[in-house]
Design brief:
Layout lengths: L1 E3 L2 E4 L3 H12 L4 E4 L11 E4 L2 E4 L6 E2 L8 H8 L7 E3 L3 E5 L7 E5 L6 H12 L5 H16 L2 H6 L5 H8 L3 H14 L8 H8 L2 H4 L3 E5 L4 H15 L3 E3 L2 E9 L2 E9 L5 E5 L2 E4 L3 H6 L10 H12 L3 E9 L11 E6 L6 E8 L13 E6 L15 H18 L3 H4 E10 L23 E3 L13 H19 L1
Parallel strand pairs: 1-14, 2-3, 2-15, 3-11, 8-17, 15-21
Antiparallel strand pairs: 4-5, 6-10, 7-10, 8-9, 12-13, 13-14, 16-19, 16-20, 17-18, 18-19
Helix pairs in contact: 1-10, 1-15, 2-15, 4-7, 4-8
The structure holds flavin-adenine dinucleotide.
The site of flavin-adenine dinucleotide has 38 residues, from helix 1, strand 12, strand 16, strand 20 and helix 15.
């Protein structure tokens, strides 16, 4: 069997679906090859004992002031499916009180405080004193980042954030606070590149805080995947689900299509197309030979391998509680710091299902999940972790919650664990060159999704930022 398409998209997560829909809007038909029965990737919802929710914490995030300013919202608006109403979500730290059990102190970011906000936020969580010299030193560091252009940031992806901090920030407290920013993102300052961080943190003085938002109804799947899939199918797109791409075909340095394993028939199928978009995490494509190393330039291969080394899974534990244990009128999403480890130590987040993530709970019960980012010395989950590491992280998180809400343990009716590839921080690895949306050496080969381009907007907002230039380049190539 050999079907022919103009464009073949490998992977039907937000990355593949956005470019497929945008091309469809431009009148270009394509086919999406998706390994699972349904599109959506890591935006797919889960059903936990009757409570449907995102598969772990997932909120549109960016360094802007309003949801409408995010690339995601702009893209959905461009496609005519922007959510009518959204809510903003507080970014809150919760510090357990060592001297007074059952007490937690909260501190939320206030965008009106500008860059001071960042200092106070991290000082609160870490317990570090923020005196004037440290504030001045941090202001100087933020000013350098603010003045670094996006182009310059791209050239600095080969400098580690750690090197940059140590060279530019003498004050020890300021130095420690900047180092603290990276573990909270789930990777150490030694591993991540300065360019990506400068690009994000440099906007802090202007914007004042990270924005987190969410639709007032439904989940990420409902807001993005369901309407985009409908749009895609209504505008000539083809979904080839339950099919796993085995290898992207390349001949004479030109993309030719892909070999695909049909999970139902168990036969191999060949699809030909002069344009192939690889929208699965690029290090996975390389590791599984979907994209053969010989088709990459040396600096790309090295960069992808370095990104792959920053690939950890995030841990979420879902709980359905017999009763409401955590008050809903406080904060819904909280980073918990436990001071019982010497210094206040980040043990993970708690996230309330309702009302924060629009989960319908059975009457009288409470749906809650933890979020513990991988990639820190204690939480190298999944790809390299042992069950002991995972259990130890869960124990620390549960212990902290029980300290403030002693009824938590006995209220657990159901508990489930989810480990998933984390949210794109691998693209921040210190690399010789930034992985781009277009192959430098293979004609017709393009890339989408959250594993490429380190100097971008944050988390999956970057996908919606990249989709417009990607579409333009493909259209230009088709016309040439
Ligand atoms: C726990 C967690 C929390 C997160 N929190 C946030 C958040 O708060 N805000 C935010 O913006 N983002 C968040 N994200 C990140 C967000 O989910 C990802 O950035 C986004 O899903 C990436 O989209 P993608 O299309 O690149 O990849 P994916 O969503 O992974 O989609 C890739 C698709 O390709 C398919 N596939 C893989 N291999 C093959 C193959 N060989 N053949 C065919 N198909 C294949 C997969 O089944 C999948 O459907 C979070 C992610 C996790 C795991």
């Amino acid at each position: 069997m050999k079907d022919k398409f103009d464009v073949l998209i490998i992977g039907g997560g937000p990355g593949g679906l956005t470019i497929g829909s945008l091309l469809a809007k431009e009148g270009v038909s394509s086919a999406i090859i998706e390994r699972e029965p349904n599109l959506g990737g890591r935006y797919r919802s889960v059903n936990f004992h009757g409570c449907r929710s995102d598969n772990g914490i997932r909120m549109p995030t960016a360094m802007v002031r309003k949801p409408e300013e995010t690339f995601m919202h702009k893209f959905l608006d461009h496609m005519g499916i922007a959510p009518k109403e959204t809510k903003e979500i507080d970014w809150t730290m919760g510090l357990l009180n060592k001297d007074s059990p059952n007490r937690i102190e909260y501190f939320s970011m206030d965008p009106n405080k500008g860059v001071e906000n960042f200092f106070d936020f991290f000082a609160f969580g870490s317990g570090l004193p923020m005196e004037e010299p440290s504030r001045q030193s941090l202001s100087k560091a933020f000013k350098i980042m603010e003045d670094t252009s996006e182009e310059e940031c791209r050239r600095l992806v080969n400098v580690s954030f750690d090197d940059w901090i140590n060279r530019n920030v003498e004050d020890p407290i300021a130095n420690a606070v900047l180092h603290l920013a990276s573990p909270l993102m789930g990777a150490l300052a030694t591993d991540v590149n300065y360019g990506g961080f400068a690009n994000v943190l440099g906007t802090f003085p202007r914007v004042g805080a990270l924005l987190f938002w969410y639709p007032t109804q439904g989940h990420m799947e409902d807001m993005v995947i369901t309407p985009l899939t409908k749009y895609y199918l209504d505008h000539g797109g083809t979904v080839l689900a339950n099919r796993r791409a085995r290898s992207i075909l390349i001949e004479n340095a030109e993309a030719k299509g892909a070999i695909v394993h049909n999970n139902e028939t168990r036969f191999l199928e060949e699809y030909s197309a002069p344009i192939v978009i690889c929208a699965i995490p690029i290090f996975e494509a390389l590791a599984r030979n979907v994209l053969r190393r010989e088709f990459l330039t040396e600096d790309w291969a090295e960069s992808i391998e370095l990104c792959g080394r920053l690939t950890y899974e995030d841990l979420s534990v879902f709980y359905l509680l017999r009763e409401e244990v955590i008050p809903k009128d406080g904060y819904g999403w909280v980073h918990i710091f436990d001071p019982d480890y010497g210094l206040p130590t980040y043990v993970g987040d708690w996230c309330l299902g309702y009302p924060l993530f629009n989960v319908k709970e059975p009457p009288g019960k409470q749906y809650l999940y933890s979020y513990i980012p991988g990639g820190l010395p204690d939480t190298h989950f999944g790809l390299t972790s042992s069950p002991e590491t995972v259990n130890e992280a869960i124990r620390r998180w549960e212990d902290a919650v029980i300290k403030v809400f002693p009824d938590f343990a006995k209220a657990i009716e159901f508990k489930g664990i989810s480990l998933q590839l984390n949210w794109g921080r691998y693209a921040w690895a210190k690399v010789p060159t930034e992985i781009d949306i277009e192959s430098p050496n293979i004609k017709g080969l393009y890339f989408a999704g959250d594993s490429i381009r380190s100097v971008t907007s944050m988390v999956s907002d970057k996908i919606y930022q990249m989709v417009f230039p990607l579409c333009e380049r493909i259209l230009k190539y088709m016309r040439s």
